[in-house]
């Protein structure tokens, strides 16, 4: 029995089963819709008679059962319905992305070891392996090993992996769970954040473009981007809702998940100035003092970064060891962002670049494209989105593109959440929605395959 199940869910069989099930579901739904449309066009039934007809022919005799009541509750409860839609979007895009990468990986490697068995081989690459090691062994100051350089990686993601490991007993799958649960939470909060300013359809489009962004696979594998992305959106959401303690708490965790977390101070301070400005304008001293006290929660953000500095001190004896390690091991220090932009485009151009074609098209071209795209979005969106979002984008771009020897610019820039709000603006017309959607899906398939096969080393 076990061998039968193993054969059933291995290699091409797994893919065929997925596509067969998807086809059958689509066929049933299509036939059901067609049959009712035909009967209604003939005047045999009215729309209001659908349920009674289904009961009479025995399809939903137990519609009033517990399952039926749950389904009705989901339909009637708006927030639960939205959650289900977002969950479906996340699961569908992840399955399609992983399956496309898996098929490309099998063709390229000419190997057949099964979908689940291949996951770690395909996706556990580059920085991802460092996070798994940290989750298992934590930091070290042993000067005889290059593991000491792990101090440049922030601690929250490995801690979360370790927490899940106690239940899963596998570090790679623990990381995958952390990343994908974070992605679902992040998609939910992005939807809630965008809905503060726009209608439901607009918010769903923003979520869609986040999920099909060409390198969004980083949000679903063992990299820390998903946790940081989610915490940054949660910080801004609670900021907009004036939930100051929750804003500060999420901001603190964001600051110990990625070095870009401290940049959240830009939109936080910008929104806080508007918050206290309204109280001052209304000459309400009581409200003004109360709002100033609420601002103390902003200190959680630098406190989070201070915790990381304290970690440096405890592990290595120096508050700023991470800066030295960045320079020694990754040849990175703080430079001018326009120099990095220039070198990126030079390395991406055929005939000018000294890099091979594979590295150029899987590393430098996507980085150059990401840089050009984000600047176009900033210019287009500067009058479309809130000023605090625009300031955040500009500050983030400046910091993200400043490290010398920039190799991961595409991945860094992917976490700028206002980009997806601007994509939703761009796609208001159906033709642009169509073009952007299918272009993103094609690029996502290509770069997911490229990364899973070992190209795009630092994409």
TrEMBL record:
One GO cellular component term: mannosyltransferase complex
GO biological process, one term: GPI anchor biosynthetic process
Transmembrane segments: 12-35, 83-107, 171-191, 211-239, 259-280, 292-311, 361-382, 394-425, 431-449
The keyword Transmembrane is assigned to this record: yes
Keyword Transmembrane helix applies: yes
InterPro entries on file: PIG-V/Gpi18
Membrane topology label: Multi-pass membrane protein
Protein's cellular compartments: Endoplasmic reticulum membrane
Pathway: Glycolipid biosynthesis; glycosylphosphatidylinositol-anchor biosynthesis
Keywords, in A-Z order: Endoplasmic reticulum, Glycosyltransferase, GPI-anchor biosynthesis, Membrane, Transferase, Transmembrane, Transmembrane helix
UniProt GO MF annotations: alpha-1,6-mannosyltransferase activity; GPI mannosyltransferase activity
Domain of life assignment: Bacteria
Major site of localization recorded for this protein: endoplasmic reticulum
Stated name of the protein: Glycosyltransferase RgtA/B/C/D-like domain-containing protein
Source organism: Pseudobacteroides cellulosolvens ATCC 35603 = DSM 2933
Taxonomic lineage: Bacteria, Bacillati, Bacillota, Clostridia, Eubacteriales
């Amino acid at each position: 029995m076990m061998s039968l199940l193993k054969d059933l869910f291995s290699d091409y069989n797994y893919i065929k089963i997925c596509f067969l099930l998807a086809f059958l579901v689509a066929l049933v739904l299509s036939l059901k819709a067609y049959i009712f449309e035909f009967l209604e066009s003939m005047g045999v039934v009215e729309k209001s008679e659908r349920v009674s007809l289904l009961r009479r022919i025995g399809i939903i005799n137990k519609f009033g059962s517990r399952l039926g009541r749950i389904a009705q509750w989901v339909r009637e409860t708006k927030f639960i319905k939205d959650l289900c839609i977002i969950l479906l979007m996340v699961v569908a895009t992840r399955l399609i992305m992983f399956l496309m990468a898996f098929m490309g990986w099998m063709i390229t490697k000419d190997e057949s070891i099964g979908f689940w068995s291949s996951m770690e081989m395909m996706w556990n690459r580059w920085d991802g392996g460092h996070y798994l090691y940290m989750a298992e062994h934590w930091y070290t100051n042993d000067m005889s090993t290059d593991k000491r350089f792990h101090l440049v990686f922030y601690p929250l993601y490995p801690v979360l992996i370790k927490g899940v490991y106690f239940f899963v007993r596998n570090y790679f799958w623990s990381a995958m769970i952390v990343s994908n649960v974070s992605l679902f939470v992040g998609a939910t909060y992005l939807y809630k954040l965008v809905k503060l300013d726009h209608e439901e359809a607009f918010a769903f489009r923003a979520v869609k473009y986040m999920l099909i962004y060409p390198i969004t696979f980083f949000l679903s594998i063992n990299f820390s981007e998903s946790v940081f992305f989610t915490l940054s959106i949660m910080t801004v959401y609670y900021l907009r809702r004036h939930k100051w303690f929750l804003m500060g708490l999420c901001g603190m965790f964001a600051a110990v998940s990625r070095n870009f977390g401290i940049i959240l101070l830009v939109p936080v301070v910008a929104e806080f100035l508007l918050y206290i400005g309204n109280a001052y304008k209304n000459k309400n001293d009581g409200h003004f003092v109360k709002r100033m006290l609420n601002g103390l929660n902003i200190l959680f953000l630098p406190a989070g970064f201070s915790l990381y500095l304290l970690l440096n001190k405890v592990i290595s004896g120096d508050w700023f060891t991470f800066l030295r390690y960045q320079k020694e091991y990754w040849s990175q220090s703080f430079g001018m962002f326009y120099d990095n932009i220039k070198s990126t485009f030079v390395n991406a151009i055929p005939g000018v670049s000294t890099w091979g074609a594979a590295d150029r098209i899987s590393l430098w071209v996507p980085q150059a494209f990401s840089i050009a795209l984000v600047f176009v979005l900033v210019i287009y969106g500067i009058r479309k989105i809130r000023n605090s979002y625009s300031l955040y984008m500009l500050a983030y771009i400046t910091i993200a593109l400043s490290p010398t020897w920039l190799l991961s610019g595409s991945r860094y820039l992917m976490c700028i959440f206002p980009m997806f709000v601007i994509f939703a603006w761009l796609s208001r017309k159906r033709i642009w929605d169509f073009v952007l959607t299918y272009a993103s899906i094609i690029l996502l398939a290509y770069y997911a395959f490229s990364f899973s096969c070992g190209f795009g080393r630092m994409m």
